[in-house]
Structure formats: structure tokens, C-alpha cells
């Protein structure tokens, strides 16, 4: 028998397989599960469990930003540049979202 909390978690958690490695993407905001307005600007945390990751990455996701208002040189995913796999994974759920690594180097 599966516990009801495993079927409906209190906080949003995603188990990801990115580039053949398993990782966890999660939020501490329970509103992200039930209230669509919480998906405007929110925070996600990313943990790989790999020894090269010394701390959990804190990401800020903005689903209503306008990429065309930014200078072209600022967009890390512009044509000819490689976009981090994690950002591409996040955009499978929130299309067009911008991902801020909050000063941390994108390592995945």
C-alpha cells in the first residue's frame, strides 16, 4: 500500500534524468502544486548527489519574462551557444522560462 503523501506530496519534487545522471529538482513552495499564479516567479533547488556538487543549486525561474527585451549577448541559449541541459529540462515544463542561477556557475 502506498502512503497518500507519496502519491500527493506536500511539496513539488521532480526526479530527473539529465545526460544519463539522476538528480532531484524541488521547491519549498507548496503553492506551486495547486495555484497557477505561483508559477510567475518561483524558486527551485537542484541536487545531483555527485561529489562535484558541493551545495544545492538555488535557481530562480521566471515564466513571464520577455527574452526579446534582453540584449542578445546576454542570452546563454542563443543560436550558436550551448544551453545548460538543466535549463532545457526546466523548459519542458515551463516553455520560454528564464532560469537564473543566482550567481552560481551553471554546472549541469
Automatic annotation (TrEMBL):
Catalytic activity: Thiol-dependent hydrolysis of ester, thioester, amide, peptide and isopeptide bonds formed by the C-terminal Gly of ubiquitin (a 76-residue protein attached to proteins as an intracellular targeting signal)
Residue ranges constituting the Deubiquitinating enzyme MINDY-3/4 conserved domain according to the UniProt record: 2-103
Domain of life: Eukaryota
Catalytic EC class: hydrolase
Single biological process term from Gene Ontology: protein K48-linked deubiquitination
Record GO terms (molecular function): cysteine-type deubiquitinase activity; K48-linked deubiquitinase activity
Any Pfam family: MINDY-3_4_CD
Keywords associated with the record: Hydrolase, Protease, Thiol protease, Ubl conjugation pathway
EC nos: 3.4.19.12
InterPro entries: MINDY-3/4_CD, MINY3/4
Homology family: Belongs to the MINDY deubiquitinase family. FAM188 subfamily.
Function: Hydrolase that can remove 'Lys-48'-linked conjugated ubiquitin from proteins.
Protein name per Swiss-Prot or TrEMBL: Ubiquitin carboxyl-terminal hydrolase MINDY
Organism in which the protein naturally occurs: Smithornis capensis
Gene: Mindy4b_0
